Fold:
Amino acid sequence: MQPILEIKAFFFNAQTDYLPYYKNFSIELAEDMQTKDILAFIHEKNENFTYPEENLIFKINGLVIDGDQSMSEVVERLGTSLQIDPVNSYRSSNGLIIDDSDFMKSYEILAPFASDEDLEYYKTLYALHYASETENFDRTYIGDAILVLAHKLISAGSEHKEAILEAITYPYSSLLDCEYENNLFHAQDHTASIAELKMMVKPSETDTPSFMDTLSTRFADKKASFFKKKEEEDTTVTVTGKQIAYYAGAVTGKSDSINEKIIQADSKVVAFSRANKLSGLLLLEDNAQLAYTKAATTLLDALDSGAQVLIVEEQEVYDMFKNNFANIEKTIGRDISLELISAEDFLAQTNSMAA
Structure:
């Protein structure tokens, strides 16, 4: 017997609706079913549900996916309770149909330095553009796709390297606002490319000053906010009998073992959606406010999911949270009543309890 899919589908018509809303549908998973078949089923049940015929991409449970994706693979990964949204809800004009003019508007930044072949390559990055995590925090962000194109142009030896770097760095929300990660169902890792671009505009202290020096006055509003010295007198956090969430961030493969330790400490494991998202560490120097916003979003997600204590895997991220906690609270406009403990200290505490 095939499983029943419980679908929550996005509805909105800019001509008639003030706010978007959702309707629920139950669908039996059929063999060889694709995601576009789900959309067709919903439209058959409710003709007000609309989706694009070309460039068909949308979100299922927050991940950007295309219409040809196997539903069996979706269910295997995401389960049978699924939410369908446009790739960019605030750009929705009618259901899953969006105003995607921003995609080509971003291309215009590099159009003077690009060929017809480069344009065709850029068009293949359509889904990547709308899968950007940065765009969730800054709607003016130019998108990951144009940064990937910039790296391609420079790597191919473009004579316009300096102009390309300036185009993707100023005056838009752009390269220095990117802490690369995307929300594609089949993830693409362009971390190295983005890091290389940043090194081109921000040479290390031992390098000869270059392009970045000519732009320094343009970033007065992006003054670096460096880590404060970690205070040795941090209050010890006890974990026994509490509701505890684990923030892994960029680290993978440790969640199961940490959760086992939480249970062994007679505590309750709390799951939250941003457990594996980045939280602004790489942005702290160039855009402190965006870094604080991302950090606050992560901390509040854990708090609002019921956590009393948050275990933070990476020491540098823990230090950022602790040393900038007041700024993080101020940025988000809320008190964050959440105790923080590093994964190292948590393990030391639980191991001593077991000894």
